[in-house]
Design goal:
heterodimer, A: alpha+beta, Butyryl-CoA Dehydrogenase, subunit A, domain 2, Butyryl-CoA Dehydrogenase, subunit A, domain 3, 11 helices, B: Butyryl-CoA Dehydrogenase, subunit A, domain 2, 3 domains, four-stranded mixed sheet, 45% helix, FAD (chain A), Acyl-CoA dehydrogenase/oxidase C-terminal domain-containing protein (chain A), AcylCo_DH/oxidase_C (chain A)
Chain lengths: 351, 386
């Protein structure tokens, strides 16, 4: 990473932080959970070029790599930003890498693999596609004679049915039957899992951000909530729990960045597997601790904590659950003898 | 809001690969006959011959100046050698404490004479050090130490007792923390000093403390009017507390804080493959362990990088030890879960011996180097909990 890239990365993160601080609050969340996309906010985001952070400079993007973009994607979790910035950013990145045009508006991405037949028609389904109800386009990975392709389809091209999720954000199932994509290209930079590793990496980074905020909320609450004549943060029992939460949040942050670095190095599936396995479990433990620290107020609608914990519970199962990814790592490990494990763990990023 | 943690990634350069392969080849040969029981001890295991061999290869005191028997190699080169050693459970105990703590302490704060005398010995694997911190009434609360150093003509007289001193019965020297002034009750952090103590000095009695495994790595060391000459004071009189705390921050983020049980995993993988076990539970649990290791290693490497850059990420180091200890303590139970291990100990069966040793040894992992609760207290304070 050169110094100038470092500066663009930091500048973008600062801009995004300012925008989110000013524009995202409880009302924004409530609005989004009613199924509405805040189009004013979305326009500001597009105008700032945030969703093109990862795209090539000749496609009008900032040309950042995933590791440089990690702070921005993590900020989406820190603020529980109820806008599909990450999905759109990844879709734009993949499109520009495949030499395809990036359309304006909200892009959704599917973590499933579709089939592309000889006539160039798409078939397949995704049982749970985030933001589909408000997206203009969907990017899917599809196999054609064993070769992975990227296909851009109009969001209304197939059958969709709205589904309820824990985070209550817009989500629907999508079924494509003989749909002709708007754009298609080979995508040699994707493996047999298509866009799932990238979605998993995004969710890991978002969860790391949400965990950092949950930790922050817990520290603040523990320092102000008085019981037995002192702030509960003075009690060792609370301190121990919050420290454990901090450990989980710290590991999640490292894991999310690790996934991003592995994507950059062409080893997206392994990085995503490591990150999603760890961060999914961290989210489970951390959410439980946070609700324990807050007591009953944390489960009430009026408190903001649950906006974070519901997202953590949602994201841990999207893009492949922590169990799904763990199993995949385990199967790969068991495919070789024990001595290979250490070689794998010490292999350079990308290997 | 920016992150409350600093974990800038550190990527090991590929130029370290030849060194890694050299260490790996040496260890593959050396480890051929190690029993599972021996492998379990790893960095507390005492094997002077092995340490001499490691010293010959230039892998002790790797970063120290050549003038003191060191090799002027980078901290990252040292990291590679250390993690390769731990991956096979090499017996590092005869040189580990000197390499990791005592040597660096002398380099930083020792007198020129102390450096010239001790560092080359450590680097050759000839001199073993133990660390005299804990006392019968002072474990986590080190500031309450009572063992006393009293000024006498030409030096000091030491009186008191140290406990939990690993390998004190085998070591040549101790670096011990004693109260050289002030009162334990009123000036807890003041008046503590570190001394370099020759373990063969008269007045020292070492008694073994047998542990769960039936062995005695720990000792109780009694000091009865032990004379230490003036030139064996380390650093400044009264600064011992700050000096010892500095060492701990470094110690907490090293690979030994999450790799103590690592050698179990390759054996478990081979056993699962041999048994033809192809179930989702085994894959998932194994995958979880591997993901944890990958992330712990990233965290540990990051701290090495930060220390090299002159930062002192104490909160982050405490986090790594807490997470690392949780991970390594879970490993023997993972093996029970996946392989239905019996509690019998089958001699010459590496997995069985290592498993048995670790089941009985893991409770100490979250005690040594700072108990989990103390570490979490440090983390909580670092986060601003009041």
């Amino acid at each position: 990473m050169s110094n100038s890239e470092m500066n663009i990365s930091e500048m973008l993160a600062e801009q995004v932080q300012r925008l989110f601080s000013a524009r995202i609050d409880r009302d924004t969340w409530v609005h989004a959970e009613d199924g509405e996309l805040d189009s004013d906010l979305w326009q500001e985001i597009e105008a700032m070029g945030i969703t093109l952070a990862l795209s090539d400079e000749n496609a009008g993007g900032a040309g950042l790599n995933w590791a440089d973009s990690e702070p921005v994607l993590r900020l989406c979790g820190v603020h529980a930003a109820p806008v599909p910035i990450g999905e759109t950013t990844i879709a734009a990145w993949a499109l520009s890498r495949a030499g395809l045009e990036v359309p304006e508006g909200v892009l959704a991405i599917s973590g499933e693999i579709f089939q592309l037949d000889a006539q160039g028609r798409l078939q397949g389904q995704d049982a749970q596609l985030s933001w589909l109800p408000v997206a203009g386009h969907v990017l899917v990975a599809a196999l054609r004679e064993g070769v992975t392709h990227l296909c851009l389809v109009s969001a209304d091209a197939g059958r969709q049915q709205a589904i309820d999720t824990l985070d209550r954000l817009p989500c629907a199932s999508m079924e494509l039957e003989n749909v002709i994509p708007l754009q298609t290209a080979e995508a040699p930079f994707l493996d047999e899992l298509g866009l799932r590793p990238h979605l998993a990496a995004l969710r890991s980074m978002q969860m790391a951000g949400a965990l950092a905020r949950v930790l922050d909320l817990c520290v603040e609450y523990a320092n102000t909530r008085v019981q037995f004549d002192k702030p509960i943060g003075k009690f060792q029992a609370i301190q121990q729990m919050v420290a454990e939460l901090a450990s989980q949040a710290a590991a999640a942050q490292v894991a999310g960045l690790y996934a991003a670095r592995q994507v950059d190095a062409g080893n997206a599936s392994y990085g995503a597997a490591v990150a999603k396995s760890l961060v999914g479990r961290a989210a489970t433990r951390a959410a439980a601790i946070a609700h324990q620290v807050f007591g009953a107020i944390g489960v009430t609608d009026e408190h903001s904590l649950h906006y974070y914990t519901r997202r953590l519970w949602q994201w841990r199962s999207e893009g492949g659950s922590e169990h799904w990814w763990s199993e995949r790592i385990g199967r790969k490990v068991l495919a070789k003898d024990g001595a290979h494990l250490w070689q794998q763990l010490t292999a350079p990023i990308g290997a | 809001m920016t992150s409350p943690f600093s974990f800038k990634p550190l990527q090991l350069p590929s130029s370290l690969e030849p060194l890694r392969l050299e260490a790996r080849a040496f260890l593959a040969e050396a480890a051929k006959d190690w029993s599972g029981w021996k492998v379990g001890h790893s960095w507390t295991g005492f094997d002077r011959d092995f340490s001499r061999e490691v010293g010959k290869r230039g892998w002790i005191g790797m970063t120290w100046p050549k003038a003191y028997g060191g090799h002027e190699r980078s901290g990252l080169e040292r990291y590679v050698v250390v993690e390769e050693m731990l991956a096979v459970g090499a017996p590092l105990g005869a040189h580990w404490f000197g390499d990791r703590q005592s040597g660096p302490l002398l380099l930083r704060l020792g007198t020129e004479a102390q450096r010239q005398r001790f560092l080359p010995l450590i680097a050759r694997g000839e001199a073993s050090f133990c660390i005299g911190l804990s006392e019968p009434d002072s474990g986590s609360d080190l500031a309450s130490l009572r063992s006393r150093a009293t000024r006498v003509e030409g030096g000091w007289r030491l009186n008191g007792r140290k406990v939990w001193t690993t390998n004190a019965h085998l070591c040549d020297f101790m670096i011990g923390l004693f109260r050289s002034g002030g009162q334990a009750d009123t000036e807890k952090h003041k008046g503590l000093s570190q001394f370099l103590i020759d373990m063969s000095a008269s007045g020292i009695e070492v008694r073994p403390i047998h542990d769960l495994t039936g062995e005695a790595h720990f000792n109780e060391v009694t000091f009865d009017n032990v004379f230490v000459p003036d030139d064996m004071l380390v650093g400044r009189e009264g600064d011992g507390w700050a000096q010892a705390s500095g060492e701990l921050a470094f110690e907490r983020s090293q690979p030994d804080r999450y790799m103590s049980a690592f050698p179990l995993l390759p054996l478990t993988i081979d056993a699962l493959r041999e048994a033809g076990t192809d179930d989702r539970l085994a894959s998932r649990r194994l995958g979880e362990a591997v993901a944890e290791l990958a992330v712990l290693r990233e965290m540990s490497l990051s701290i090495v990088g930060q220390l090299q850059d002159g930062h002192s990420p104490a909160k982050e180091a405490a986090l790594v030890k807490d997470l690392g200890n949780l991970h390594e303590q879970r490993m023997p139970d993972l093996v029970r879960e996946l392989l239905d291990c019996p509690s019998s100990i089958v001699a010459a069966d590496r997995l069985s011996e290592l498993q048995a040793f670790l089941v009985q040894n893991v409770p100490s992992f979250s005690l040594r180097g700072g108990t989990r609760e103390i570490l979490r207290g440090i983390i909580a304070k670092g986060l601003g909990l009041k």
